[in-house]
Amino acid sequence: MLLRAFLALVLALTALPALGAEVRLTVERKDVTVTGRSVSAITFNGQLPGPTLRFREGEDVTIHVTNKLDEDTSVHWHGLLLPGMMDGVPGLNGYPGIKPGETFTYRFKVRQAGTYWYHSHSGAQEQAGMYGALILDPRESEVVKTEREHIIVLSDFSEEDPDEILRNLKNDHSYYNRGRRTIGDFFRDARRNGLGATMRDRLEWGEMRMDPTDMADVSGYTFLVNGQSPTGNWTGLFRADERVRLRFINASAMSYFDVRIPGLKMIVVQADGQDVEPVPVDEFRIAVAETYDVVVTPREDKAYTIFAEPIDRSGYARATLAPREGMTADVPPMRPRTTLTMADMGMAHGGHGGHGAPAEPAQSQGHGGHGDHEAAPPVPAQSQAHGGHSDHDAPAAAREGPPRGWADAATPAGMRALKYSDLRSLTPQKDLREPTQEIVVRLGGSMERYVWTLNGAKAEHASPIELKYGERVKITFVNETMMAHPMHLHGMFVQLINGQPGERLPNKHIVSVAPGQSYSALLTADEPGEWAFHCHLLYHMAAGMMTKVVVARMSAEAK
Amino acid sequence: MIRAGSALLAVLASSGVALGAGAHSKDDPMHEPMIFWGAGAEVDGTDAGWLSDNDGTLVTWDAYGWVGGDDVKVRFEAEGESHDGDVEESELRGFVSWNIAEFWDFQAGARYDFEPEGLWWAAAGFHGMATYFFETDALVFVSENGDAQLRLEQSIDFAVTQDLFLEPHVEVNAFAEDVPELGVGAGVSDVEIGLQLRYEFSRKFAPYLDLVYERAVGETAGIARAAGDDVEQTTLRIGLRVRL
What is the ipTM metric for this complex? Predict the structure, then answer.
């Protein structure tokens, strides 16, 4: 009894957010037992996830990070606007990383509000446990008032050494694929679709030497909420009729999640830390490194399950919202795992009508859109972004058979999933200039080799993207692979062209580009420095999918 | 013998330059290429009497190891066969392997036969995956005596379940001319067809059963018959695949 009280006290103390403008973080190895087995993790202050850091907009922040590892480390403040040196990417802006035994002191002014996170930017340390929530309170009060809030840090925890995971993938790209099509699947498909069609399907994939069941690259994960496994069942409390803000952060290395809370409507109020006009949804897909704030209002004095299943359905993360500790709600059955289609390869053949499957929408959508008038021509690639069902394949009501295509989350009829096109910035965008140039970024790679590229080059061969300070540009991502890539630009937000008017385009630090699709975003290059620009799937970045954007003040123009 | 051996060393040394330049660095993914490695082996055994009139215990092995980056690797391969404890065939191959296309490596190096007799070969060819997922090795060897050999190997995996795999595999050898010392004639010399059923406890530890049919053909079969040897053999092998 005494022990439990003591433990509760310790928990309460460690759960307290670090207040104030000066914080100390220690990076150290620590054995954790989230899965029941003891695993050596790399932690901040011995915690997994790291302590929640909480600052206020306008505050001057000092963060001392001490490295107690026997290897270099670094900390990156994901989504924050700050001087390049403080962004924490070794090799950029003269930031050297943090050597073993050394302390690096980050100093910056908080220039924004919202839900963000922080993580290592060295090797694969992030996978080993180096991540935590970073909450920035607005100078005034939140636009959306809530009585209570909880932070929901989703992550994928592996018992394997992260470097070993990458080595395994280099040896055998399907090392972690536990959903391969079997001989039995062949006969099942032949019964359903006919022998000829099934043969043609198998031959098409064989011709490309691609695997339509390749969804997530890495499996064997235990999916965590705030460091707790599904059996650990992290629980957040509420009182009936309270409005509760849930700050979802996907701190996974490799896992996209489809998130829902059966019985509760979620109102999305923030994406990537930036306020958006409220969107009521039943579920949303959260890309790696994205954040979404949602507001729920549980009316009943009962427990609700927060359920987040990765798109390869290799498990699930689960937590509980409850009026009291110890309560649980039913855990819903997992949805079926989808299979990729030829459309996910950017190929229109294969007989699914309606799929835009743009081979080169980058060129065709032109420059006309955004500005002070109604933006964005109806580009199918953008309007169908995220969250499954919706604009393609069979309408949800007519759903039968297994889900097909990357975006298909098997959302039941009548349920609404968030789409990128739903996101409208709450505050009007200020820079409505036409872009002066379009920068095409081809997302490529070879699954077979486990090599990933931007514009055909691995990081060590990549040529930087050079922008003039103050320049307004359009970045067009052309995904030539059959995986989604959550593309992350450091140091600046982009405005995702999602079909909304120019002044309502949402700010994003992650643009998740679906397989075979093309999305465009606008960028005002108003932060000088060298900014990392990469796929946020950890092993894609490690395997080469990274470059830098250099924003330079031209001395002649600056004056 | 010295000639082929020093050629291999020279190639390995030159690739060592590329390897040495790319030490694994966690600090600067933007500039440093990374070095990886892999290794694996299949070892199996059988009683030759199970499916034929032959007798004796047959053990075969097939192993590989590599180290390198995405563009250049050094790769070693060993394979052989013993009969009642006597090693009858054993060879070691060493290559530098260059990534020349998404699914293909070009390999150049050397091979040394320990058995049936000590013999150096220069070796070159392709290693990769052909359309429809056929793992493929196509190698040409030229011995220190000037004899040329061609070897083709292909295999493909079918998933029965997520743990159980069926792997048909085939190997064909051919020679440019008669090589009496090796008991082979010009043309296709032998063909091996097998069907492996493998249970993967993990990707790294997988016991298997392998039903293998081997046959000498053409002039080589004639030479074997003249010597009173069998020209074909069917075996059911029990083995273990280990990968690191």
Answer: 0.87
